[in-house]
Write a structure and sequence with these properties.
- This protein has a single domain, classed as Amino acid/polyamine transporter I, CATH 1.20.1740.
- The chain contains 21 helices and no strands.
- It has helices at 8-19, 22-34, 38-66, 70-77, 81-111, 115-118, 123-134, 148-165, 168-195, 200-208, 218-231, 238-244, 252-280, 292-303, 310-347, 351-365, 374-403, 407-415, 425-452, 466-491, 498-501.
- Helix 5 packs antiparallel against helix 17 and helix 15 crosses helix 16.
- The relative contact order is 0.19.
- Bound molecules: 4-fluoro-L-phenylalanine.
- 4-fluoro-L-phenylalanine is lined by residues 18-19, 21-24, 95-96, 99, 230-231, 233, 331-332, 334-335.
Amino acid sequence: MRDKWSSRSTFILAAVGSAVGLGNAWRFPGLAAKHGGGAFLFVYVLAMLLIGIPLLMMEIAIGRRTRQGAPGAMRAVNKTGEHAGWIAVSNGIAIGIYYAVVFAWVILMFLLSFKFAGFTGDTESASKLWITTINTTGTTSGFGTISWPVLGCLLIAWIACYLCIRNGTTSVGKVVKYTVSLPVICLLILAVRGFTMPGAMEGLAKLFVPDWSALGDSTLWVDAIGQVFYSLSVAMAIMFAYGSFVDEKANIAIDCVIIAVSDFVISLLAGIVMFTTMAGVGMLDNMSASGISTAFIIYPQAIVSLTKVPWINAAFAYVFYFCLITLAIDSLFSIVEGSSTAIADKFKLNKKKTTTVLCLIEGVLGLIFVTGAGLACLDIVDNFVNSYTLILTGIFEVIIVGWCFKTSKVLDQINLNTQNFKMPKWWFYLSIKFVAPVILTALFVWNVVSLFVGGGIYGAGDGYSLLSNIILGWLVMGLSLISGFIVKAIAKSGKKSAEEEAGWDDIKE
Ligand code: PFF
């Protein structure tokens, strides 16, 4: 018997838990700061309506109909679709490996939060705590050294992740109640502090008041669309797997709107926390440095400037990093769940064993990010996956569903049992057939061009060695793209089961 969510709310919480992750806290506010506040929010909402929500509905609906992880689900749509599914699984594995390390850094900072008491007023020391503890060289050399504290935390991270998913939907269902509500509570506490700081209004103005001239900057569009994609956890094999555990009676259309809106609201809440706090400590201009540094370098400086009372600052540090822990864990386990579901379905393996082995393998591969070269390596992989493979996966998925299949069948599945809100045909078709393929392709081409043309980043002077770009960027991307062929070669010896050959219409209701 296939796993099923115990209730509708469990499914929604699990999907929200996956979507709401570190990206909401560290990418979203920084991008908004960089791109003219309200103008960025406007494009973000537009991209969510036209690309994010329809894609989310599509993945969940296909998962539910086929009761398979991403590759099996996409194969039922079209035989070549299986490849797109395996690329999504590869994205999930690559992201899972380094996300666990970021999660480990968060655990580390949580454990070290007491140190902020001693740093009161000393922004210099606060900003260095993370860098010195992870013992990074900042370059791609330094594989010989290892940060033991990070290694310890990585172990804790993977054990925690494993414990949450070892019993599939049953254990996930129990955990997500806490991992979704706790970060919201923490963010609300931090927001109250932010609001009571001088200059809070100035911070809010920077987040919400649009600077429309920013719309002319193409990087705003690139960043906003990329962020929608990343934030809703699509193209990572997660939502197919989560969809495959959804009950026939569920209303996918309305549930997906709830998931996307919750994700957006929590991003805004994180934005409010960041902008009011930074304005309060006079660091508003530092906000546009989006990226990992927001959580580990910039925010610590704000923490030690919050009050003159050391223990209160330390308490805020605990709340902040605890918030990040609860944000990260359910995203991490969702991504492992997505890949393990796909692999167990394909090879008819025991799900629990598959999950165990996958956690072990991903944990061991993550060791490279614990070395002195780890931060630079993580930066390279993160950029390649986000700028190229995720978007490419999205393109494949929408082209297969929009142009190589009867799109109406997927729409019917989305609207099955939906009374109050049906996904309108024009909206779904417009998005899946036209807007998403065109915009995502444009985005992909843009990213590839900026890779090579002057001022571009990776492979053309990103400051990291060419060899590391080739291995961690191009090779990882290449392996993802051919992963479907690799799996086929491995599976060749086994006979094809009836399930494997089943198309969309052969599946029993
Ligand atoms: N939506 C997640 C976030 O914003 O952090 C993206 C994600 C990343 C999901 C990593 C899962 C994951 F392991």
